[in-house]
Amino acid sequence: MVELHLLTATQVLELIGNNSITVEEYARSLLDHIAKRDSIVKAWEFLDPALVLREAQALDQIPRDKRGRLHGLAIGIKYPTDYFEVIPPQTHAAVPDIAKYRVDSTIAEQLRNDGALILGKTRGVGFAVTTSGLDTTDLDNPNRTQGSSSCGSAAAVADCQVPLALGTYEDSIIPPASPTGVFGMGPIYDSLLFKDKANFAIHAGRYFARSVEDIQLLHYVPSPMSTLPYVIDALYNSGEEEGTCLLGTRTCLLRSIEAWIDSPDEGNICWLTGIAGGGKSTFARTIARTYDYRKELAGSFLFSRGGGDKSDGHKLITTLAHMLAERIPSTRPYMFDAIQKYQINITDNFHFAWEELIINPLSKVKGNSPPSTVLFVIDALDECDDESICAGLSNLLTTTRVLTNIRLRILITSRPEALDAHVGWRVQDKGLLCDLRDFATDIDRDIGLFLTSGLGIIQADVQLGLLKAEVTSRLASNYPDEVAIERLVKNSFRVFAWASIASRFILEDKMLIMERNDMLTKNRQSTGSQETCLDEIYTTVLRNSIKQNIDEKEKKTLMLREVLGSILIILSPLSMESLAKLLVKPLDYVENTLRNLHSIINIHRRIDPMSLRHSSLRDFLLDQKRCDGLDLWIDETQVHRALAKRCVGLMSIILRSKIREIESSDTLMNDILTNDPYHNLRNACIPHELQYACLYWLRHCDKGELYISDDDPFEIFFRTHFHYWRVAINLIGRRNDMYSMLRVYNQLRGRPVIRNYRC
Fold first, then answer.
1. Which strands, in side-by-side order, build the sheet including 373-379?
2. Peptide bond between residue 333 and the one before it cis (omega within 30 degrees of 0)
3. Are 273 and 435 contacting, i.e. CB atoms less than 8 angstroms apart?
4. CATH: 1.10.1740, 1.10.10, 1.20.120, 1.25.40. Which one for 546-634?
5. Alpha-carbon gap, residue 581 to 235, rounded angstroms
6. pLDDT value at 421 more than 80
7. How many angstroms separate the Cα of 537 from the Cα of each of 241, 491, 558?
8. Residue 257 — very low, low, confident or very high, per pLDDT cuts 50/70/90?
9. DSSP 3-state assignment of 299?
10. Angle formed by the axes of helices 482-492 and 443-463, to 10°?
11. CA-based angle 20:21:27, to the nearest 5?
């Protein structure tokens, strides 16, 4: 019989699965081989044979019906714990107290939950090579060998000390894999949650294996947390371009909020209110970033109406729970227990979820003296898409019990109207209630600094000779000088959103810098309110985008109303390409319509999702009185109806063929459902506009007050395409939403609501 340590992971799992060998027998074979070879290979920084054998014996005691899919498989990990920084580097066997620090890293915990036997911590050494047969020199410098922090993992796999081993960063995988002759998997298309901590960069997507079959085993390792909804785009650092407060601005407000967070005597809630465009979201991101650097941010959620899941209040608490589990690993066991016991209640009842996933796990964390700070930042709560959920969350968050073992702090921002009187009294009683108007002293100075910083690029380009002569000849001397900045500040009426739009609008066309500056500062009609201040700048930007002769202006207005209205009303951001396909318009039609609107709409590449730079644009265009002079009023109900028809039209044309193509291949269907953690395969098979149509056609019908009757296009689609639609929802990963979708359908049909449904 072949020695067990020589077997691949796939072979070992088969033998353990059919009871041909025990986990302990397999572990002893590996340990014997390591004992013989360790002085030569030096692949392990920490490996405790006694601990490995105890865990192997424990795995053998698990009943067959309760074993995980990786039961008994030995795996090496570069960083098996979340507190790896306490382990002295390059100490090999000189770390006897490692168990004292052992709090499993996220991936180690996931592997253990799947039944894997974590063998130990691999080393980060200068290089790893075999002794013959391969060119081991660095491609860039033949005088040295390649090396990386994952060399120990590669060496352990190559020497048959373990069949699979995890590495660290993407660029640390290939250098040791090639000269050691093993497979190295290092995808680079995923986004990292916390870029400053190495252990959060480790997952089952970066590993070494000796066979092609073994590669599939770690392609995707699910976590108990994966059953909970998680909106990564709602995090403060999700990758969108919105920034934080400019250094030196909002200093008084920052000091006040930081004093509340750090004080041992203050309440656990702070609610910050302010008008639209007042800078609440920028401030929230600033606080989140500050306390993230201090390792005291436990979670953040930035609501955005029309932002898809970012406007879904049901996903707030589960998203915060995901982040809390990453930041404070000792909360995970309590979360896992709650998920296993109360799965249905947790996803359906956010009061229960808050207690079981957040408060209860935090209350059981061993406290420090003085208690450490745990901060949650929840921005723009008023942009939650369901008013009843928003009200429920307000009551829930403001009644959170005080914890004695940690200093829990919850920062909430919203417009004033989201804070009713009862909640306001409760906040004042339990914490801090702030209004941006209370910190208005330095706003003019702050907006001046912001505009100077943004428009200062003009003079920088002039001095560096980066602007063409025809551009510089049209510029006023030293623009933007102090006088120009003062005029802009005066016209901003202390609204940061105005200053942000103005800066982008002026810079959008270098040939028209002075003309656009004059548009914003001359002939103002504002009577002095901050709302009319925003109305005026939106009117200026939109009028500028449709400056044509009479016929062309009328045509451009219709185009703008259709495209801009769709962007305003759409329930989850779409790219320019996807929106064009949904509207059945040429891509150039959409692109030309939006060409001069970069100052008010986030537009990057054609394939990137678009969004409003500020939600106040939606308020403006949906209010017929506020945008009366533009002929651009958006009738929300009519746009919902139009989008519902577009969604059903698109699905009726291509949904059947797309799903049949997927169903014709068992491998493709299975890969999308189980081996596609980053959704690349799903998105290739089901384009974004089709995913959108499947998910939101019924909500558009509902919001558009469209009632479904026999033989109308909606009922015909439902009757003839139900199977393909249901499969698509499952492939998109939203099968849990099917019940609520069918409930809406039956309400629109006037039928009784379905009580129980299984997708």
1. 297-302, 373-379, 407-414, 269-273, 431-435
2. no
3. yes
4. 1.10.10
5. 29
6. no
7. 21, 10, 21
8. very high
9. strand
10. 140
11. 165
Rounded to whole angstroms, the Cα distance separating 589 from 354 reads: 46
The CATH homologous superfamily for domain 232-440 is P-loop containing nucleotide triphosphate hydrolases (3.40.50.300)
Structure tokens at 175: 């250098």
Regarding beta strands 117-122 and 431-435, do their DSSP bridges make them parallel or antiparallel, or are they unpaired? unpaired
Locate 379 and state its tokens: 């921005």
Counted residue by residue, the chain has a size of 759
Is the CATH number of domain 4-222 3.90.1300.10?
A: yes
Topology alike, domains 232-440 and 546-634? no
pTM as predicted: 0.74
Phi-psi region of 308 (alpha: psi -120 to 50; beta: other; left: phi over 0): left
- Is 443:492 a contact under the CB 8 Å cutoff? no
Q: How far apart are CA 346 and CA 357, in angstroms?
A: 8
At residue 73, the pLDDT reads 92
- Helices vs strands, H then E, count in the chain: 31, 13
Extract the tokens encoding 188: 């680079």
Give the C-alpha distances (Å, rounded to integers) separating 278 from 52, 226, 451, 507, 603: 58, 36, 15, 22, 23
Task: Report in angstroms the alpha-carbon separations of 1 from 7, 11, 33.
Answer: 11, 13, 16
332-348 vs 316-327: helix axis angle to the nearest 10?
Answer: 180
Going from the C-alpha of 525 to that of each of 489, 502, 512, 522, the distances in angstroms are 16, 16, 22, 9
pLDDT tens per residue, range 703-726: 999 989 888 999 999 999 999 999
SS (H, E, C) 671-713: HHHHCCCCCHHHHHHCCHHHHHHHHHHHHHHHHCCCCCCCCCH
* H or E segment to which residue 165 belongs: strand 164-166
- Locate the domains of the chain by residue range: 4-222, 232-440, 546-634, 636-749
Which range is least confidently modeled, 72-86, 301-315, 743-757? Answer: 72-86
Q: Which of 222-231, 457-466, 641-650 has the highest mean predicted lDDT (pLDDT)?
A: 641-650
